[in-house]
Specification:
Radius of gyration: 24 Å
Helix content: 25-40%
Strand order of the largest sheet: 1-2-3-4
Number of helices: 5
Number of domains: 1
């Protein structure tokens, strides 16, 4: 009798969990605030990636706020470029993917494709995510951070 009871409880649990129950939230989605217009942020991310792709420090630094530009010297840029290209290959393309919701900051993500040749001569493709974090300061975009993840 006890074995039958255990079997019935396990069977009921299996049936209930296999049904894929979920709660549906019928709360209407709140519209994003006007400051969430991300087209300027996307252009900024595209410009930073294009400068990196072309190994152009001057163009790259022109998109950074003064405090970041002072901390990212040409030598730092060249070292980063060399390390990334040695590890992952040449940056071939990038595509904006999404913006993650956050109360104050905007987190934007791109898929970035790199290609390199293996020791045997085969093409090796690597994809990384590039993350750009921005905030709105009055009418201007404030670049907070960026990098490959």
């Amino acid at each position: 009798m006890m074995k039958q009871m255990i079997f019935m409880v396990m069977a009921a649990a299996a049936i209930l969990t296999a049904g894929g129950c979920r709660v549906i939230d019928n709360t209407p989605e709140r519209p994003m605030p006007e400051c969430r217009n991300i087209s300027r942020d996307i252009k900024l991310g595209n410009a930073i990636l294009a400068a990196f792709q072309h190994n152009d420090y001057q163009e790259f630094a022109s998109h950074l706020p003064p405090n970041m530009a002072e901390n990212m010297t040409k030598k730092d840029f060249e070292t980063s470029y060399r390390n990334v290209t040695q590890e992952f290959g040449e940056l071939k393309s990038y595509e904006f993917m999404t913006s993650l919701k956050a109360p104050v900051l905007k987190n934007l993500l791109w898929r970035v494709t790199f290609e390199r040749k293996s020791e045997s001569g085969k093409t090796v493709t690597n994809e990384l995510m590039f993350r750009l974090v921005t905030g709105d300061l009055e009418e201007d975009i404030q670049l907070v951070s960026f990098g490959f993840i």
